Amino acid sequence: MKAIQATPELKLQVILGAVALLPRFGNLEEILERDGFKVDAKFYMIVEGETPVTMSKSAGLGIIDLTMIFYNLAPDMIVAVGDRFDVMAPVLAATYMNIPIAHTMGGERSGTVDENIRHAITKLSHLHFPANEDARDRIIKMGEDPSKVFNVGCPRMDYVLECLDQMKKEVAYDYSDFFAKHGGVGGCFDLSKEKFLLVSQHPVTTEYGSNRQYIEEILHALNKFKMPTIMIWPNADAGSFEISRGVRVFRETYRPEWLHLFINLPIEAYLRLMRLCSCMIGNSSSAIREGEVIGVPAVNIGTRQNMRLKGKNVVDVASSRDEIYQAIVRQMESGFYETEYLYGNGSAGKKIAKIISETNITTTQKINFY
Amino acid sequence: MKAIQATPELKLQVILGAVALLPRFGNLEEILERDGFKVDAKFYMIVEGETPVTMSKSAGLGIIDLTMIFYNLAPDMIVAVGDRFDVMAPVLAATYMNIPIAHTMGGERSGTVDENIRHAITKLSHLHFPANEDARDRIIKMGEDPSKVFNVGCPRMDYVLECLDQMKKEVAYDYSDFFAKHGGVGGCFDLSKEKFLLVSQHPVTTEYGSNRQYIEEILHALNKFKMPTIMIWPNADAGSFEISRGVRVFRETYRPEWLHLFINLPIEAYLRLMRLCSCMIGNSSSAIREGEVIGVPAVNIGTRQNMRLKGKNVVDVASSRDEIYQAIVRQMESGFYETEYLYGNGSAGKKIAKIISETNITTTQKINFY
Amino acid sequence: MKAIQATPELKLQVILGAVALLPRFGNLEEILERDGFKVDAKFYMIVEGETPVTMSKSAGLGIIDLTMIFYNLAPDMIVAVGDRFDVMAPVLAATYMNIPIAHTMGGERSGTVDENIRHAITKLSHLHFPANEDARDRIIKMGEDPSKVFNVGCPRMDYVLECLDQMKKEVAYDYSDFFAKHGGVGGCFDLSKEKFLLVSQHPVTTEYGSNRQYIEEILHALNKFKMPTIMIWPNADAGSFEISRGVRVFRETYRPEWLHLFINLPIEAYLRLMRLCSCMIGNSSSAIREGEVIGVPAVNIGTRQNMRLKGKNVVDVASSRDEIYQAIVRQMESGFYETEYLYGNGSAGKKIAKIISETNITTTQKINFY
Amino acid sequence: MKAIQATPELKLQVILGAVALLPRFGNLEEILERDGFKVDAKFYMIVEGETPVTMSKSAGLGIIDLTMIFYNLAPDMIVAVGDRFDVMAPVLAATYMNIPIAHTMGGERSGTVDENIRHAITKLSHLHFPANEDARDRIIKMGEDPSKVFNVGCPRMDYVLECLDQMKKEVAYDYSDFFAKHGGVGGCFDLSKEKFLLVSQHPVTTEYGSNRQYIEEILHALNKFKMPTIMIWPNADAGSFEISRGVRVFRETYRPEWLHLFINLPIEAYLRLMRLCSCMIGNSSSAIREGEVIGVPAVNIGTRQNMRLKGKNVVDVASSRDEIYQAIVRQMESGFYETEYLYGNGSAGKKIAKIISETNITTTQKINFY
Description:
Four copies of one chain form a homotetramer.
Chain A: H1 2-5, E1 15-17, H2 28-34, E2 41-43, H3 52-73, E3 78-81, H4 88-96, E4 101-104, H5 112-124, E5 127-129, H6 133-141, H7 155-169, H8 178-182, E6 185-186, E7 197-200, H9 211-225, E8 229-232, H10 240-254, E9 259-262, H11 267-276, E10 279-282, H12 289-294, E11 298-301, E12 314-317, H13 321-334, H14 348-358
Parallel strand pairs in A: 1-2, 3-4, 4-5, 7-8, 7-10, 8-9, 10-11, 11-12
Antiparallel strand pairs in A: 6-9
Helix pairs in contact in A: 3-4, 7-11, 9-10, 9-13
């Protein structure tokens, strides 16, 4: 967004909606305004419930809302980011309304419904900004015009690398009020002195009904260590309630003093934890994307990141407490890994803005190469 | 549907909605009941207006409705047909709700937004039933598992071929009450004696705003012939109103006695006209699919059927009155063509039912081959 | 709207939506622009089908859309007009969003669901502009604060009276191209010389399923006269399709050369017909509101206008062909009636704009007097 | 529901939706099944956000969903309960779909948008079941047919009185695991020995933007007592987030050990607290309805219960910390009050079931008496 704003040929319009608008995921609007962005339109589309049913209804409602917004803002192009279920709403509204679509982070592989949605968005998009050459190849293999597919890196990594650079320059950082500042529930500890684990487990939407079992396996593996552990609350995908129910019952039953839960953390705070922790555990893509740059040893669990391009810092295991336990032991022994840059080197934003400003795209006829 | 009903391992559920439920497109519910099908659920999703805005809102509303319907009917699989904009609604609802998707007529090429939607549906589907080998190859090239892609032919052709067989056996058919029976407006003539043209022109959604010009070019080309002409009303896609406005103004201005308009025709009646007419004109896929079997000389206009696999009976021209005029002259001279079977030989339904009954599909992890 | 625009203290915002946006009901947007109004927002909410199901879904969709529109336009007050089913959408959205509501034409009585919706809107409104003293009394009896209820007359009558004044000043009017100009189907005749009947019959939504019978009774009554008759197409309420189906079958069966159908007429053209015709027939409120000023003899059929305050020009009958026939005979004998002004004298708009500009309304607490 | 189930002439259909379906408000589906009810349909309609915008969108979505549900279940009548914003959804869907509406708890007075919605529902309903004679009079004054308005008492009180009877018969009740059983956050104490306050403050939707101030006034009043206090989380109306934000900041700032928060309590547990506490504080209707029977001294704050019929146990104050403080002092001095029965004596359900089974209602024409 900063790069687009800095490009004179482009005019940025910002639409804030879906989970990004919900206070329980942080006040993104405030952050946007602080960073100098004007929000042109807002829309609430998340139907409460966190089930496959509400995920589907939310997408439908999002299409209805975005139709009205696109009609009013009349953008010449939309930039769709990634593969979350809700990204389908702007992509489909733009498709029907003859608005060209640029897509970032296409062509990757993973588990869950994200995989299918990511590739479907590719087939609806006119301009592609994959995060690496592997993803670029896959997009072209799927029949997209190679002259419209640009390996630019992942724009999320631009900001991550900027933050990490900043942190490296810091002489010292005071962690003493970290828990007070970011709230949450459960035991606290001295982040600057004690070794700890970092857990982030999201629902596997395509295995709705099994997510409680998965989180229980993780919690029981962690219970063998009983070392300080920070867990991030799951996102709002279908199955979220299974995870939170599993965590709640575990907390009531075992009273784990070693476990602290944060609803949500600013990305800077989260990156600090990644740099400090002894091992990351769960199925978040952050262990893979941000993780490979930080080199944090990570245990990736289950199918959610299946086939995702991963650095050496990641070990894959099934959702079994024994496998998880063993992998954590091994990863803590190995320690931090060399930095890798599989998802870009921090210049994605500028490249994207430049290409959009130089490329002429219409929806009249999208050429498929097959 | 008949083939599924006849397969003991399968249980058919019928959902009737979108334009299929609207009286102005014929009473499909009555036809279904007459043919022995029970409608399990009905939903109205078409937001009136026939613009890109209403097309998009309709899809959003359809997703909301189908979520409720799928939740109640709990199907083990849905069969999505073709590439109309509204097919995206059941496909997305099923995607979010972890219901496997079988897709017919995927892998083909054409113009308009249909092209993008068709391939996006392919990337969301688990079982593919393309209509020919060319389409099968394209689906596999897009990364789908070859063991899940079956060239079965187009199920619509099953019924078409059945009708045509029936008609070939008829000794004679009485066309005297054809106009009285099917209504419409404009001049009538003796179908069994007079040469006539058959026109079916639908909106090019991706060229919304130009559709009036396209129909005017056609009407002015036809006006040079002034021979009896039957025109079918356009479908309800965005831009439909441009076409109907163009036709209305032309009728008021030129009072063309030679032009008869039908809102809608049963498929049998339409096939009869295809067999009788001197030339088909417009951008309907029927000239290509049904047309190649009948061998009817056809003039395909503009981009809507771009790159579609076509038989020898079709000549492509741009939306220019001169080109259209010349092509009609040539095609009338050439007369009927040899039958081709690029879209199947009439056994698609049976093959599809058999494969579905024998294939085990889950949504847990769809394998993409790239 | 003109009066609000002319009031310096007020700023007009115009939202165009529902049936007013549909081309088949005329191009209202063009008319608004011609008359110097800027449309601030547009929304399509009508789900095609014209059944109770689609009426209900349309209202739900309208609420969703208007929420977004009100959020963007942030009006200090909305003016809701009358009692159509779709007016509930802006009224409810405003209710939830704490936007004060002014309501015109409240407090009247009629049949169908309109009656219930009209009174419900009254209980949700903060400022009331009934069309006569009878309606004002009823609003106050329902518990509304008398200081917020103003008998201003019906704003629709402002325009009607202006048009009629204009027509009275005309030396002559050329009706020769009336049918050519306004289109429609069926027989034409010389409006300036021949006696004719004017029919406007809308669906009775609360008697959905009986509307075909009602129109058949009317058509058979008219068939006894076989005198030139102009019929206006029904509005889009649930049951509309029953009426149009009834008309279509009657036309096919009896080929009534005496019957001409218009889809829709500009109000000026419609008023001309009211002044020229021998008798109005049907259940349109225009026979009552505009009719009492023109003095046109009218036969009001069925329950749709039940208990509506009516002038002497109106005779009520049940939906029976015999009663309708007899009433038409009597009304044609009686001829035109004296003008009455039960619905205002043409100054409603100015009064409304003045009161709104002088009244301070908040939604914090609406006082009910019971 | 039990009374309807026990009436042979009636067949109960249960639709579970809106907040009743959300896990964070308890598992109502489980409770219904335990109590022998079958849920015929479920729908998620709550759009996350808890603002006026999402309240409005939720209602729109609810209408769309309920249209589908009513279409499938085809009820002969719906029973709408009370005046929450979401009750408008079934009432409007039924209105459009010609389904008769019975309404409980109409005719009362209160603050917020509930007041307007309650009376609007009355004008859309065909059968009225007010909770007392005062409410019955008001419904009749609003123009409803007296023969359709039955003072039966409040059905919620049936269950409350049953619970209270049960509790009176108990020899002793073990409160030792109350906090463990019902969760929540904050300090715990011995319910059987210590005096405590009970607080339930919900958003005033019509004063959206002021709710944080209101809760702060309450918390600062309570902070003067520093006696054990149990607070119930606010409901999901617009403004809920203002309250929870206010509570969170207060907790972080003042670390009130005396304050315990429950997200939600089963009604039995809540009634126990009402019987044990020294004073109830806030703006919940439970202080008025359940409270008058229990005789609990209550301080009702602000406009939410404005003009509601109240027993002697309730004192009204403005949202000012001083007034609140003084009123709590006075109410604790006064102690418990005599039981009153302004909202019925426990037989509402049976009366309602009997009247519905004996009354013939159609929607063809609702008679308004004005």
